[in-house]
Amino acid sequence: MLIGIKNGTTDNTQEQEDTTENHNLAFELLKYGKDKNVEKILESGNMELIYYFVITCISHSTGKRKWNKFGHRKKMNEFVTYSDEAFALIVLENNAEKWLHGAKHPELKKHELPRAIYTEGGESGNKWSVPGQKRYVDLCTKCIQRRRAVLEEDKVQLVAIQNMVLDKERTKQDGMSINTKRKRASDEDDDDVVRITSEERELNLYMASMSNGEGIPLNEVLLEPTEN
């Protein structure tokens, strides 16, 4: 199962297959991160991988409250900002090597794992280093360029991703129990307006508030038991 999603099945075989698939997707994402090639994820054409990245990373960088409110109602580009996307990408890149090593060697303690490349160690301490800040700006720029696609094939791919995510989120919402829907609704913001700030203000806000990504649970799926 995707992190945070319950499909209601009682078929253990199906659950094992879902868990194995998620392991594979998680490792594939982390390879993009380790290779510092995260901007290619949304250009890969692999819709299962893209959706997995969206639901495990972008939904958290956007904010679960906002995602729960709009994920099944609006296309991503209507409420997910370019900086939400860029933040999800850089968190993945920042932690990929550490998460991969931890998955392969679960017996290791936290201090024995490789350091996050942009936020741990060095002169920056646990803050984002200058290379990390520059990389974030670079990813913001690439996310903006991707949204302003000029080539027809790029436009088609962008629309396909938007529609795919919305369709999957609507299907997931329809399959939820009444109690789950009520709980999800209670977590929503009261304000129905999604405020899009200026690019300059948004960038400054993210630079000031960026954490090292410990809240994004992509690493958790790697520690789930799976059949060999």
What would you say this structure looks like, in words?
By secondary structure, the protein is an all-alpha fold. The chain has one domain (13-208). It is 59% helix and 0% strand. The chain contains nine helices and no strands. Helix 4 (82-104) crosses helix 5. The two termini are 17 Å apart. Residues 1-11, 188-203 and 215-228 have low confidence and may be disordered.
The assigned structural class equals mainly alpha
Order of helices and strands: HHHHHHHHH
Helix content: 55-70%
Q: Which ranges are low-confidence, i.e. pLDDT below 50, for 5 or more consecutive residues? A: 1-11, 188-203, 215-228
Beta-strand percent range: under 5%
Average of pLDDT: 76
CA-atom Rg in angstroms: 18 Å
Q: What kind of sheet is the major sheet? A: none
How many strands in all? 0
Instruction: Tell me the span between the first and last alpha carbons.
Output: 17 Å
Query: What's the domain count?
Result: 1
Q: Number of DSSP helices?
A: 9
Shape, per Cα inertia axes: globular
